[in-house]
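User: Could you walk me through two proteins back to back? I'd like the raw sequence and the C-alpha cells for each, with a short line separating them so I can tell where one ends and the next begins.

Assistant: Of course. Protein one, sequence then structure:
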Amino acid sequence: MKTSILSSLAIILMVCACSQPAQEENKVVIATLDPGHFHAALVQKTSLPNVSNDVYVYSNPGEDLQSHLAKIEAFNTREDNPTSWNEIVYTGDDFLEKMISDGKANVMVTAGNNLKKTEYLKKTLEAGINVLSDKPMAINADNFEMLKECFEIANKKGVLLYDIMTERNEITTILQRELSLFNDVYGEQIQGTPENPGIEMESVHHFYKEVAGKPNIRPAWFFDVDQQGESIVDVGIHLIDLVQWQCFPNQAIKISDIKVTSAKHWVEPLTFDQFKAATGLAAYPDYLMKDVKDDMLQEYQNGEINWQIKGLNAKIVALWRYQAPVGGGDTHYCVMHGTKADIVIRQGEEQKWQPELYIEAIEGGAEYQAALEARFVELESKYSDIKLEKIGDKQWHVSIPASYRVGHEAHFGQVTEDFLQYLSEGKLPDWEQPCMIAKYYTATQALRIARGE
C-alpha cells in the first residue's frame, strides 16, 4: 500500500515537472517595438492572463524609451494592484532585426512614431509574429497598399494583425449602439445626404496636457504630420471605426462599399512658446522647419471626411487645439439619426466635460415612451443600474453609474484582453479584417482628396 502511494506520488511529480515547461511555452510573450507613445505602456497597465511577466523591449535609445520604461516601473511600484513586469531591453539601430532574430516573443506591441510603422508590421508578420498595434497602422496611400499586403501575409502565416480601437469600450458609445438596434425606439437608420449625413461625429484633442500638475511632454516628432500623420488618418481612424461598428454591427465592409464624397484639412497654428511648453524643447528640430511660418508651427491637424458606406452618408471631424478649457479635456460628439429618434453623445461644459447620452424623439408621445421604457428594462438586465431620466417633452437622458466610466486608459486593457481571446481562438471575428481594410482605405483616400492629390 505504502509502495503504491509513493509510486503514485512519483508519477504526479513527473507529470507536474513535464507539464510546467509546456505551460510556460504556451504563454503569450510580448515584444514592445519602438515605444514612442504612452499607449505602448498602457497595454501593460494591469497584469494580463496567460501573459509572461518577461517583456522584451527593442528600441533606439533616448527619451521615448526612458519615458516608456518609467511608466512600466510606475505600474510595478504603485500601491494599488501593482504589476510585476520584467522589462528586458535591447537598444540599437537594428532593433527590428534584433527582435526578429531573437525569436523571444510571439506578440509584438507597437505604439509610437508612425513613419515606418507599416514597414515594421510587414516584417514582423513575415517572421510569423502576431501584432497588436496602436492606431494608425497606415498614414498615407502608399502605407495603405503595404497594409493590405500585411493582412495577406498574416493570413498566410496564420497570425493575427489587430489595431487598438479603445473607443468601442466607452460606455456611452456602447449604449448608443444598443439603442440604435431597437426599431421601436430608433426606427430605421436615416441614410442622409452629404449635406445632412445619417451619422455625424466630432472629436477634439489637445496638444498640451497636464498630469498631476506637470506637463505631459510630447516628443517633437508628434508635431510632424509626416511622422505622426494628419488628424484625418490618426484620430480619424477611431471615428471611422466607430461609424462602421455602430451602424453595421458584426458586418463585413468592403472597399467597394465605400465612396469618399469630400474631404478637407486645415492647419492648427501653434506659437513657439506653446510648442516649447508641450515638448520641453528650446528650438524647433530641422524636420519641422518646413511647417514653420513667422515662427509659428502650421500643421494640418484638423480634418473632415464625408463618405458613404453601403449608401449611408457619414461625416467625421477630427480637431486639435492647444489646451482644453479649465476643467475640461478631450471631447467626443456623436449623433445618429433614426426615423423615430436621434441618439446623441455630448461632452461639453454643460455635461461637465463628461460624455453623456441622450435620446431625442422625433414625435414622442405616451406610446413611444412606453416602448422606450420597455427597452430600458432589457438594457438594465445587461447594464445594471443605468437609469432613464426624462428631461424634456421628447428628450431623455441616460444616467450611467460611475462604475462604468473606467476611463480611456483602462480601455487599453479591455482591448488587449479581447485580442488575447482571439489569439487563443486562432482567429479574429470574420468581419474584423475586412472592416480594418475598409477604414484605412477611407482615411487614406480622404487624405489624398484633402491634399488635392
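----
Protein two, same layout:
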Amino acid sequence: MPAGGDPLLRHWYALCRSRDLGRRLPLGVRLFGRRLAVFRGEDGRPAVLEDRCVHRHAPLSAGRVCAARLQCPYHGWEYEGSGRVARVPALGAGVPVPAGLQAAALPCVEQDGLVWTWPGEGVPDGPPRPIATCGEPGWTRFIMKTRFRGSIEACLENFLDCPHATFVHRGWFRSPTGTPVTARVTMLADGAQAEYFGEPRRRSVIWAMFSPPGGTMHHVDRFIAPATSCVDYAFPNGLAYNITSTCSPVEGDAIEVYTVMSFRFRGLGPLVRLFFEPLSRWIIRQDVRMLDRVAGNRADGAAPARSTEADLLGEAIWRWRSALARGEPTPAAGAVRDVRIVL
C-alpha cells in the first residue's frame, strides 16, 4: 500500500440519505469495514464518529442524541460532533471531564440529499462533487438506497453498460433491436464517458414514457472516479432524465449504492413519479439479482473475465481504480475512439 494509506479512502463517500437521519437517534453504518455512528449534532448538522465509546467500547450507534450530543447507551457519556467527550454523568455536576477523552471523528457534509464522509487521511480539498440536476428547477427527484453484492468496478460497469439492458431489462428499459450504434468513448480528466449516436428507441416502457418518435436523442454515460456513474438522457420534446449512482463499500463484497433519479416532465413530475419510482426500483432489483448471480458464480483459479470493445467503459473503470489504489498516475485525458455496437 502506498505511504499515507489507501488512496481510495481519500475521497467522499455517501453514508446515508438525509431523510434517514433523524434528530433523536443515530445511525450505525459501515464503510470499508469500519463501524461508524452518524448523528445530527449542533444546529442539526450531521457528524460522524467511530462507533465505539472510548470508555468501554459500547456501540455509540445504539445510544441516543441529547441536546445535540451523542450519548453512549452504556454509561451515558456524551460526545460532541468533534468527538470530544463533553460529559461523564458518573463524575457528577461541575466535575471537569479528564483531558484527552476523544472519539475519532471523520469529516462530514450534507449535500444533495445525502450525508457524505471522507474516510481517508488528510483534509478534503473541497465538498463532494455536486449531483447532476440537483438545485436546478423543473426536475423531480428521488433517492434509492440499494445493497449490491460484488465489487465497485462490477457495479459501475453494470450501471454504464447498455448491451446488458437489452437482456436483463428486456421490455422495461430496452429490448434487442439489432440496430448498429456508434459510441464515442472519451477519456476525461476525472474518468471517462461514452456518447451514443443513432440509438434505437422502441420496445420498452421507458421509451414509451419519455421519447417521442423522430428527432435526436442525446445520451451520455459517464464514469466519475472513483465510485460514481452518471447516465444522462435528453429527448427532443424537452423531457429528460438523469441517473447518478455513487457506490460506498460496506465490507466484504457488500456495496451500498445511492442512486439519485432525476427527471424533467413538463410540470407533471410529481404525478409521473407515482409510476416512475416503482418502475425504477423494479429495474434496479433486476441488476441486483444479476450481479448477485455473477458474484456467486466466481471461482478461485478461474480464468480472468474477458472483454471486447463493446464493453465501452469497463476498461477505463478498471484502469482508473487500479491506478488510484496503487497511488500511480491515472489515465491521461483526451484519447477518443469510436466504437460500433449493436443494440
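Helices lie at 152-159, 162-168, 205-210, 269-296, 314-326.

Let me know if you want the two compared in more detail.
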